[in-house]
Amino acid sequence: MNSIFDHIQPNLDILFVGFNPSIRSGETGHHFANPTNRFWTILHKAGLTDRKYHPEEDHSLLQLGYGLTNIVERPTKAADEITKEEYAEGREILKKKIATYTPKIVCFVGKGVYQQYSGRKQVKWGKQEKSMVSGIMDFVAPSSSGLVRMKVDEVVAIYAELPKLLRTLK
């Protein structure tokens, strides 16, 4: 199983950060490739993309000002397979990526991703009051996994805050 490439460049509008690649993503080399993952649908319904993209088009998000990375590189079947050591290493790598590439907003795709990154236990949805890297907004959104029990419209409503926040930053 291979790690998948980040899609990242300087000065992105939004850098989306997941836990780690799924087995399907590791097999295909594309982010959010599991057919049950709702990431691509959520981006479209939230007004972040003009159409529903497919995992094979993940690199195309760069043209829209969006990037993709994970806190841990190793593909797993479930996030609970990630070790404390992998999170600790991934946290430091991610902080360096964010500081180097300076996206306007870092959107953590899952509350647990942000908890692992920030070390904070209490996390609310949306814009965080204090970011981890100065000058870069931290935003927490629900995981796009099909296992999430929230209705897709509830998830979309949270992601729909991102375009509004972007307008205030430009």
Automatic annotation (TrEMBL):
GO terms for biological process: base-excision repair, AP site formation. The keyword DNA-binding does not apply. Its EC number is 3.2.2.28, 3.2.2.-. Residues 5-152 form the Uracil-DNA glycosylase-like domain. Keywords: DNA damage, DNA repair, Glycosidase, Hydrolase. One of its GO terms (molecular function) is uracil DNA N-glycosylase activity. InterPro entries: MUG/TDG (IPR015637), Uracil-DNA_glycosylase-like (IPR005122), Uracil-DNA_glycosylase-like_sf (IPR036895). Gene3D superfamilies: Uracil-DNA glycosylase-like domain. PANTHER family: G/T AND G/U MISMATCH-SPECIFIC DNA GLYCOSYLASE (PTHR12159), G_T MISMATCH-SPECIFIC THYMINE DNA GLYCOSYLASE (PTHR12159:SF9). This is G/U mismatch-specific DNA glycosylase. It comes from Priestia aryabhattai.
